[in-house]
Amino acid sequence: MSKQQLVSSFNQLESNINLLCQLLQTQQNVKAAVFSLPETLKGDENNEVSSILVDKHTGSDALTRAIDLFTLLFIHKKSELVSNKAAIRLPGAICLAPSLADYKRFQHLLFEINQLKIEIKQIVTHIDEAHRFEFIRESLHGLLTLNTYRTLTSVVDPDTIRFGWANKKVINKVTQEEMLNRLQASLESGRTPSHLQREHWILQLKNEIQLIRSLPHDCVLKTQRPVKVQPIARVWDKETQKQTQYPCATPLLIFAIDKELSDIKLGELADYHQDNIALRNRPKAKPVELLIPRLNLYIER
């Protein structure tokens, strides 16, 4: 994959996003509500979050905030005080009653945008992890990859959209060979974390490589990366008696085609308080032991 492919796909993406936002701004029949969350400042990325206070925005203010997020693709477009490592989230929904011609344009643009987002992510992730940062920096300096990869969700004629919070972990099995390759690539890349001296970093990597090599060949390794609390949307369709849950880091685009806008009910996103989240039917996990904290790497025991 070449830098030219990445830049070309990104330019197409940016153009289509701009066309989508222009089309959104021309709509006359709009009902919108979004919920802004506190910004994560630099240095606060790893702080434990026990509560999140939300602010509700409606109407044209909600639409403007949604457009601002859809078009936020570079670091230099946001405050220097805000962390570049933390995802920017704006849960909510933009409900539209477009003409048939505009609805077809929306569907075409959303399909193209999401395909390009997937394509860009594939181009970047096919680059070896040790060289990925340099590849992005040389191709599209300051790119916000999380915002760029994040696809847009659209729903037609739901009955209700309610919002809530979810806690989860991202768990992946990895082999010894994969971990050794990853650590060796870090050792050979020449890059050192800013908070460490190079000799300490090299020693740490060599110790981690030795630790992985010393494990039994049949061991089960897992990365368990904790993901901070996420806003979600629960969309209910009365006709099919079906509820669908969506991640809601960006506002859903809701189209009223056979329904009136007034038929679609938008719920509220309550403030998050850790003590109020109930754990439901969580499967019993096998016991694990933490091996390398910085990689969230565990071994089953």
UniProtKB/TrEMBL annotation:
SUPFAM superfamilies: Replication terminator protein (Tus)
Pfam family, one: Ter
GO MF term set: DNA binding
Domain of life: Bacteria
Biological processes per GO annotation: DNA replication termination
Cellular component per GO, a single term: cytoplasm
Keywords of the record: Cytoplasm, DNA replication, DNA-binding
Protein name in UniProt: DNA replication terminus site-binding protein
Organism, as annotated: Providencia alcalifaciens DSM 30120
